[in-house]
Amino acid sequence: MGCGASVPSSAAPSVSPSPAPVTEAAATPAPVSGVLGVIPARYGSTRFPGKPLADLAGKPMIWHTYHNAKTSAVLTKLVVATDDERIQKVVEEFGGEVVMTDVNLENGTERCHAVLTQLQSKGERYDVVVNIQGDEPFIEGSHVDEVARVVLQSDAVMGTLARPHIDEADVVGVNNVKVVLDVNGFALYFSRAVIPHNKKGTYDPNCRYWRKLGIYSYRADFLPTYITMPESLLQKAEDLEQNKVIEAGHRIKVGIVNEAVHGVDTPAQLDDLNDQVKKGLIKVPSLVVKS
């Protein structure tokens, strides 16, 4: 079987491909009580301390992430989850909603769960939680919609997004996570290696490789299970947490989009983004939103 087998039947050149027909029940999901968007934002990043408040095109990075995520058509509520009062102050000053979380939480997923738990204790109910990376300031609302949709319209417990690869450099790097899919768009495996992997062990320009993006959605009733699941063999082998979900027999649905957003991991990457914005090479959609 050739590389073409890795193309899901639901994949199409659009942000929101139609899901493959399964059963009438799956195609017509029950009414939902809400979709919660959470932007985890830590001040104490090892590689880039204070990153959420770093200046991008004259605004704090978290301002861009929040306003762009706000363009989503499916989110019932959007909050920033942080353990730092400096971030809280900035977000509340521009009208955003903040939920304070424990400083000892290990990652963004745990912050999402903490937010969900706090809101549920107030009587709020959500069926899906979307984890929106705070260091992706140009996140598109349509991406948020798509990652929520793949869970709402399937039996998957988690969702994420992927895009077609660009070139060999886009595939071979160990920091460029790849995913192989079944014909219905469910993830078979996530890897830092080149997958699919041919007999020659070389990159094939005629193969369809899928690059995973850094956004996730979870069924709200699965999130408590997810954060307590023990590390699995495949998770530790690849250093990719989502593999433990597949290894445990759960399903992750992958939505297909055409382009990735610009993430920021280091000060040098932020400097490069600011330079591209000044030169007009990158449009900043959030700047058209009145603050």
Automatic annotation (TrEMBL):
<dbReference type="InterPro" id="IPR004528">
    <property type="entry name" value="KdsB"/>
</dbReference>
<dbReference type="GO" id="GO:0005829">
    <property type="term" value="C:cytosol"/>
</dbReference>
<dbReference type="GO" id="GO:0044281">
    <property type="term" value="P:small molecule metabolic process"/>
</dbReference>
<dbReference type="Pfam" id="PF02348">
    <property type="entry name" value="CTP_transf_3"/>
</dbReference>
<keyword id="KW-0548">Nucleotidyltransferase</keyword>
<feature type="region of interest" description="Disordered">
    <location>
        <begin position="1"/>
        <end position="27"/>
    </location>
</feature>
<dbReference type="GO" id="GO:0016020">
    <property type="term" value="C:membrane"/>
</dbReference>
<comment type="pathway">
    <text>Nucleotide-sugar biosynthesis; CMP-3-deoxy-D-manno-octulosonate biosynthesis; CMP-3-deoxy-D-manno-octulosonate from 3-deoxy-D-manno-octulosonate and CTP: step 1/1.</text>
</comment>
<dbReference type="InterPro" id="IPR003329">
    <property type="entry name" value="Cytidylyl_trans"/>
</dbReference>
<keyword id="KW-0808">Transferase</keyword>
<dbReference type="GO" id="GO:0008690">
    <property type="term" value="F:3-deoxy-manno-octulosonate cytidylyltransferase activity"/>
</dbReference>
<dbReference type="GO" id="GO:1901137">
    <property type="term" value="P:carbohydrate derivative biosynthetic process"/>
</dbReference>
<protein>
    <recommendedName>
        <fullName>3-deoxy-manno-octulosonate cytidylyltransferase</fullName>
        <ecNumber>2.7.7.38</ecNumber>
    </recommendedName>
</protein>
<comment type="similarity">
    <text>Belongs to the KdsB family.</text>
</comment>
<dbReference type="InterPro" id="IPR029044">
    <property type="entry name" value="Nucleotide-diphossugar_trans"/>
</dbReference>
